[in-house]
Design goal:
heterodimer; A: about 90 residues; alpha/beta; three-stranded parallel beta sheet; about 25% helix; about 20% strand; elongated; B: about 375 residues; alpha+beta; four-stranded mixed beta sheet; about 30% helix
C-alpha cells in the first residue's frame, strides 16, 4: 500500500548568499553581533585574525537582538562591508 | 518485525488538483502494512514523526480528510520556517491523518497554520530557540462545540480527541513542514511536553465577558489564537471571593525570574481563568480589562533584581533608565495580559508566559 510523505515541497529561499571573491585583501569585514553572551568578543577576535591573515580590515560592528530578524536599516549599513561575520548561540 | 518500504514519486494526481507550478507533488511511500507502528518505523528512518504510533496517511484517508475542503488542496496556504516548507491543505491533511484528527478538525488546523505565519509570531525564532516554547492553540466559538473540542474539565488534557489530535497535528506540521526537528531545526535545551500537543478550547459558555476573539477584534463565528509560550503555570485559590486575592496569586506566578518574560518587557501573558475564578471577578463587577489592569499593576518586580539576574535584557529605554530600587511591571502594557476562561469545576487557573520575542495571533476559522 502507499502512504503520503508528510513534508511537502520546499519553497524558494528567502535570500541567497553573495558570490565569494577570490581574495579578501583590501576588503572590509563587518561584524553582526547578535548579542548572545561573548558573541561580540568571539566575532571581533575572528575578524581580527582573518584580517591579519588576508590583508582585510575590520570595519563595521552592528548589534541586534538574537531572537529577531535584523532590521532593514542595520542590514543596509552592513552592506557596505564585503564580508560579514555573524552567528553565535548560547 | 521488519517492515518494507520504498520511496516512489506519486504518478497520479487526484482529480481536480491544480498545481499551477506552485507546489511539487507530494512524495509517496510504499509500505507493507498500515499498522501504526509500521508507519512510525518507516517515518523514523527518515527523521520524521513525534515518536508515537502514526495513523497511515493513505490517499483514501487524506481524501476523506479533505472531503469538506472547498479550496484547492494544492494551493499554498503559507510557507513555514526554518525549512521554508510549503504548507498546502493536502500536506496539512496528511499530518492531520497521522495525528488522528477527524475531518471536522481540519479547518481549525488550517487556521492555526495561517496564524503561525503571521510575522509577529516570529516562527523562525520560536522554532530555533533554546527555550522550550511551544505554540498553544486556543479554539474559540462555534467550532469548539461542533467539532468536539474540550473547554471544560481537563481541557488541557488528557482524553479529548479533538484537543489531543489537533495539537499533535500542529506539532507534526512544525516537525515535517517547518523542519523544527530537535537538533536540526529546534535547539530547545530540554524540549518540553507541550511540544507533543498543546490545544485547548475557550469556555465561552462560562465566560462572563464574552469571547476572547471578539475582544481582540476578530468577530468571526469561529476563530483560533496561537500563543507561543511555556507550559501552563498553575495557581489555585480555594478561599477568596475577593478578585484581588485571587489575582495576586496570578501576579505571583507572573513574576518568576524563571520565565522568559522576566528579561523581555514586551512579552505577553495568557492568564487562563477557571470559570469559578472568572465568576468571582465578574461577581465583584470586574471586567476583562480590569482584571488585566490589576495584574499589570500587581505583577511588579524590583529593577535591580532583574538587572542582577539578566545581563541580556530586552527592555524599553525608559526601563533601562530606572533606578535599581524602583519596581516595574513585568510586562510593559496591560494589553500584553490576555484573559481567557478555560476549564471546569474547581479553583485552579494558570498563567502561560510567552517565549518573549513573539506576539500572539488570532485569526478566523474558515469553514
Amino acid at each position: 500500500m502507499r502512504i503520503y510523505a508528510p513534508v511537502g515541497a520546499v519553497g524558494p529561499a528567502a535570500i541567497s548568499r553573495a558570490v565569494t571573491g577570490p581574495t579578501l585583501a583590501g576588503k572590509r569585514i563587518g561584524i553582526l553581533d547578535n548579542s548572545k553572551p561573548n558573541a561580540g568578543l568571539l566575532l571581533q577576535r575572528l575578524a581580527e585574525g582573518l584580517a591579519a591573515r588576508t590583508g582585510a580590515t575590520v570595519g563595521l560592528v552592528e548589534r541586534k537582538n538574537a531572537a529577531l530578524p535584523a532590521p532593514d536599516d542595520l542590514l543596509a549599513r552592513l552592506a557596505e562591508a564585503e564580508v560579514v561575520l555573524t552567528g553565535s548561540a548560547d | 518485525m521488519k517492515y518494507q518500504f520504498t520511496l516512489v514519486l506519486e504518478q497520479e494526481r487526484p482529480a481536480g488538483s491544480r498545481l499551477g507550478g506552485v507546489a511539487d507533488p507530494l512524495e509517496m511511500l510504499d509500505i507493507a502494512s498500515d499498522d501504526p507502528e509500521a508507519v512510525r518505523e518507516c517515518y523514523a528512518e527518515r527523521g520524521w514523526g513525534d515518536g508515537l504510533p502514526l495513523v497511515a496517511p493513505t490517499p483514501e484517508r487524506v481524501d476523506a480528510m479533505l472531503a469538506n475542503c472547498n479550496a484547492d488542496p494544492d494551493e499554498p496556504v503559507t510557507v513555514l520556517p526554518p525549512r521554508s516548507g510549503v504548507a498546502t491543505r493536502r500536506v496539512i491533511a496528511v499530518n492531520a491523518v497521522l495525528a488522528g484528527c477527524r475531518p471536522e478538525h481540519l479547518p481549525v488546523l488550517v487556521a492555526a497554520v495561517r496564524a503561525l505565519a503571521h510575522p509577529e509570531i516570529n516562527l523562525r525564532g520560536v522554532n530555533a530557540t533554546t527555550h522550550p516554547v511551544a505554540p498553544l492553540l486556543v479554539v474559540h466559538g462555534e467550532i469548539a462545540q461542533t467539532a468536539g473540542y474540550n473547554a471544560g474539565l481537563g481541557a488541557f488534557g488528557p482524553g479529548n480527541v479533538a484537543n489531543a489530535a489537533t495539537g499533535r497535528a500542529l506539532r507534526l506540521i512544525l516537525l515535517h513542514v517547518a523542519g523544527a526537528i530537535p537538533g536540526a531545526g529546534d535547539a530547545s535545551t530540554q524540549g518540553g511536553p507541550a511540544k507533543y500537543t498543546y490545544c485547548v478550547a475557550e469556555n465561552l459558555a462560562e465566560s462572563p465577558w464574552g469571547g476572547y476573539a471578539a475582544s481582540v477584534g476578530v468577530a468571526a463565528a469561529s476563530a483560533v489564537t496561537v500563543h507561543c509560550g511555556e507550559a501552563p503555570h498553575n495557581f489555585h485559590d480555594m478561599e477568596s471571593k475577593d478578585p484581588a486575592a485571587i489575582l495576586d496569586k496570578a501576579a505571583s506566578a507572573m513574576t518568576s525570574l524563571g520565565s522568559n518574560n522576566a528579561p523581555v518587557s514586551s512579552g505577553e501573558f495568557f492568564v487562563m481563568l477557571c470559570p469559578e475564578h472568572a465568576a468571582a471577578c465578574d461577581g465583584a463587577g470586574w471586567t476583562r480589562d480590569r482584571v488585566a489592569s490589576y495584574l499589570h499593576e500587581r505583577a511588579q518586580m524590583r529593577v535591580g533584581d532583574l538587572r542582577a539576574a539578566f545581563a541580556l535584557r530586552a527592555w524599553a529605554p525608559w526601563q533601562e533608565a530606572l533606578d535599581d530600587d524602583a519596581t516595574m511591571s513585568v510586562t510593559e502594557h496591560r494589553g500584553n495580559i490576555k484573559i481567557i476562561v478555560v476549564g471546569g469545576p474547581g479553583k485552579h487557573s494558570s498563567v502561560i508566559p510567552s517565549w518573549g520575542m513573539t506576539r500572539s495571533a488570532t485569526v478566523p476559522v474558515e469553514v
